[in-house]
Structure of 3-dehydroquinate synthase:
Amino acid sequence: MTQPDDALSTLRVALGERSYPIHIGPGLLGDPQWLTPHLAGRQVMVVTNETVAPLYLSRLRQGLGDDLDVRELVLPDGEATKTLASVERIWDALLEAGFNRRCTLVALGGGVIGDMVGFAAACYQRGVAFVQVPTTLLSQVDSSVGGKTGVNHPRGKNMIGAFWQPRAVLIDTDTLATLPPRELSAGLAEVIKYGLIRDPGFLGWLETHMAALRGLEAAALTRAIERSCSLKAEIVAEDETEQGVRALLNLGHTFGHAIEAHQGYGRWLHGEAVGTGMLMAAELSQRLGWLGDADVARVRAILAAAALPLEAPADMASRDFLAVMRLDKKNLDDRLRLILLRRLGEACIHDQTPPECLAALLEGFPRR
Ligand SMILES: NC(=O)c1ccc[n+]([C@@H]2O[C@H](COP(=O)([O-])OP(=O)(O)OC[C@H]3O[C@@H](n4cnc5c(N)ncnc54)[C@H](O)[C@@H]3O)[C@@H](O)[C@H]2O)c1
Ligand SMILES: O=C(O)C(=O)C[C@@H](O)[C@H](O)[C@H](O)COP(=O)(O)O
Ligand SMILES: [Zn+2]
């Protein structure tokens, strides 16, 4: 087997004794050196959706040798399909193919496919191998790394799931060429998140390179993906199952998940809801005296530069936010646990927000 090309970079997610690679670069799909070393055996189920299949399925198949038993499952597209019923379709296909515990599932697509395939792998015959091949910016910088898998419930995002780590993450940056601009912006929300929670230098870099990122300039995108994956890998290595620091990756998500669930899954993209949620978190941090006017203005400006929404849905009252936020998975002992900003580049877990302060934020935050 040839050595990986120098143009590609590899990061690792270290989990105690175990670790897995994140390969990042152009041209990974279709090159057998990336996928085949991570297969558990001969049986391979590639799961994708009806949008991604015509774009990338045949290229991925080229990266799988002829000596394998490869099956394909093409699911419908959309956040609304991130359900247990879709995961059952994966299990049905695996059983129909007669696949055993040495099979490997390959998730080819965005975060919806990745989360569902990971969950299917976690449960099939009590756990089989899976590989993430993310094709959206959001899935390349966030969802494919770290092993959070699962599906939505009408009452809350990702309410049913498991921690189950992939064997490898293969990020082919060429796939971003076909991504619609709205999806690119959604991915940028999670990229901005890393700067806000952990890396003020990266936040500054993003401010100056936003036009290049939105213009799909390869060098800028690769740098943003590498830095995001590296920060996520570091946090997951510290706290795989979200007992502490990993919760910081949820900046903007308590508000954002409430928007997604209230509006009906898919109406707001996950990244859009998280972007608005991060602005809400920043404004709440300002009300608590941690951020100044200039800090909040910077958060608003970078979200605007990424073409993300800055207002909450018009039909969402404060009580609608609170109803979903009360079910958030981070909450303990009936207390809301929010991720807030001590300053730009430093997040904290906060469960002491005075109710009147949160109420004022929710009442005063603009709607559209
Ligand atoms: N597990 C985690 O840690 C984690 C982290 C962040 C988000 N998520 C989850 O990820 C999901 C959002 O992921 P997403 O933003 O990738 O959404 P998505 O999976 O719905 O993909 C967005 C859209 O882009 C299409 N698409 C995918 N790749 C494409 C390509 N290369 N060219 C053209 N179109 C392409 C998809 O078919 C879809 O229509 C949410 O369910 C969210 O909860 C999970
Ligand atoms: O990896 C994590 O941890 C995250 O929180 C990343 C988030 O961007 C992602 O949306 C995640 O799926 C949210 O998880 P949840 O536990 O809040 O459902
Ligand atoms: Zn997210």
Observations:
- DSSP finds 13 helices and eleven strands in the chain.
- The first helix runs from residue 32 to 35.
- Residues 49, 51-52, 55, 77, 79, 82, 109-113, 115, 135-136, 138-139, 142-143, 146, 148, 157-158, 175, 178-179, 183, 186, 270-271 surround nicotinamide-adenine-dinucleotide (ligand 1) (CB under 6 Å).
- Residues 95 and 206 are 46 Å apart (CA to CA).
